[in-house]
């Protein structure tokens, strides 16, 4: 493995750690950055998924007590957020991800489709912000989220299978449309990302097992560790920001990024 490859892994790990917690699409950023650095192909796609897991591990540590509480398996009314909420939130995108895995890898992991997804996701976020201004949420905190809302948010998460759309952008927007506050939707989004990314990484690694060789593990490990460390530094600040800032601000950033990349790179 060339030293340049490790430099690319470090750069992508930093990008992942900084963008995983914002509704700007960490995968989209890594695909665009990978295209600029000529780091593309099937192995690059697998690398991107593994690196995401490093950032998600930072979320797991932040919400560690919450995940421990899920082990009680208390599904009674008034018990607050529990494991069943996560299962319901995972089912739609989990099923579609398995069914459409080949299609997604072949057609939705390129720079052009990412640029389109950045724009489409931004428009959804603006629509959600406008909806939020006209409606009072029924779920102010993550513990107020109903099973119906959890499943509905999971349906919106299907959009995140389109690389560049953003998992947090689609689920936070979905939560708002389903009647949750932005803060509740953000908390649920980050908690839900842990089992979703663990599952996605497992499926992707299994399907890509023939592409990986021993020499690749060092590259994967570097990207994983860098994204985890950067994620730990960024997670608290960024999670607080996404709970407070207007979604339209992130949408405008997405539009500018897509325009600049289209004008000067494509």
Give structural notes:
With 266 residues, this protein is an all-alpha fold. The chain has one domain. 75% of the residues lie in helices and 0% in strands. The protein has 12 helices and no strands. Helix 2 (26-36) packs antiparallel against helix 7 (111-134) and helix 3 crosses helix 10.
Topology:
Blueprint: H1 3-19, H2 26-36, H3 42-62, H4 64-69, H5 83-99, H6 101-107, H7 111-134, H8 147-157, H9 167-177, H10 182-207, H11 214-244, H12 247-264
Helix pairs in contact: 1-2, 1-3, 1-11, 2-3, 2-7, 3-10, 3-11, 5-8, 5-10, 7-9, 7-12, 8-9, 9-10, 10-11
Subcellular location: Cell membrane
Function: Catalyzes the dephosphorylation of undecaprenyl diphosphate (UPP). Confers resistance to bacitracin.
Membrane topology: Multi-pass membrane protein
Instruction: Please mark out the parts with pLDDT under 50 across 5 or more consecutive residues, or reply none.
Output: none
The total of helices stands at 12
Estimated structural class: mainly alpha
* Relative helix content: over 70%
Strand coverage percent = under 5%
